[in-house]
Amino acid sequence: MPRAAPDAAQAALTKELRREAGQWLKAARETTGITQAELAERVGLRYYTFVSQVESGLGRVPIDLQAAWAAALGQEAQAFAKHLLGYYEPELFRLLFGNAARRAGSAKA
């Protein structure tokens, strides 16, 4: 069955979750003590502006780069990916991990 078009409320929630994910990623990067340019280099990106876009909520970390981002930020890849899933795909996160699982908080969620 095809997906229904997102309504305005869903679009606003998606935008807010992307913004929160970006804030979390920025905090993780700053805690690690690296710049956007250094993170981009470590994960194999040509331009640091992509990191800026992700941190501002305009983009998302591609699935095939999540392990590299986790390593660059000093985090365990599975926990990192699970944490991002809570922001990027909250309904899938709920289906996989239940309502009791926390999306926000540490990457160990």
UniProtKB/TrEMBL annotation:
SUPFAM superfamilies cross-referenced by the UniProt entry: lambda repressor-like DNA-binding domains (SSF47413)
Record-linked CDD domains: HTH_XRE (cd00093)
Domain HTH cro/C1-type stretches: 25-80
Protein name as annotated: Helix-turn-helix domain-containing protein
